[in-house]
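Sample A.
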Amino acid sequence: MLAKIPMTTTIYSTGTHHKSEK
C-alpha cells in the first residue's frame, strides 16, 4: 500500500498539514 502510492501519500499528508496549519 505504501509502495503503491508513496508520492500521493506524501502530497496528501503535506497538503493537509499545510492547509490545516495555515
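Sample B, a different protein:
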Amino acid sequence: MTLTTNDLLRDYVRDAQERETAEIEDVFVEIRDNYEALLRDDPDDVASAVGLAVLTGAKLQAYVLVDLGLEWHSEWEPAPALSTEDTVGQALAEDAVSAARRALCLDPEDNLAILLLGLALEHRGDLDAAVVAYARAAELDPEDTDATTRLAALRGSAPAVAEFDAAKSGVAKSGVAESGVAESGVTESGESGQEEVSQDAAAVLCSA
C-alpha cells in the first residue's frame, strides 16, 4: 500500500518523539517536498500549509528534546529555550515559525497553526510573541486546553500576558453577559476590545 503524504507525516511526528532528526531526515525531506509541490499547484491549500507547519514543528521539537536532550518535565512549565548561539536550532525554529505563519496567512483562525507558532516561538525564546499566539488561540476557542495550559505556563514570564489580561478585563467591564462578549467584544465606549487584541495578534500570527 502506498502511503499518502499525511500518512508519512503522522509516522514522522511519532518517530520524532524518540529519534534524532538526522535519522529521519530523508522522510522529512520527502514530506516537505510533497507539501511544497501541492502548494505550488494551489498556493491557497490550507491543509498542505498546516501540514508543513506540523512537519517543521515536529522537527524542531525533535531537535530540542532528542538531539539536544533538553528536559521538559511538565507542560505546566515553559518549554526549553534554544541558545541564541545555537545556529542550527535557531534556523529550525525560524523554519517552524515561518511555516506556521504561512498557514495563518491563509487561515488566521486555524488553532493548530497558532499553537504550533506559539511552541516554535517559545523554543526560540520569544516569550512575548508566544503569549500573544496562545492568547489568540484561547480567544478563538476557550476550550483549547493546549493553548490555555501554555498560557498558564508562561504567566508572569512575559509582559504580554499582563497586556492581554488587561484587554480582556476591559471587555469584561462592559457589563455585557459573558456569552455576548464572546460574540461581540463590545466595550462601553462601543469599541471592540477583542478586535484590538486580534489586531495586535495579527502582527505576530501573519508577518514576513
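Observation for Sample B: Residues 157-162, 167-197 have pLDDT under 50 and may be disordered.
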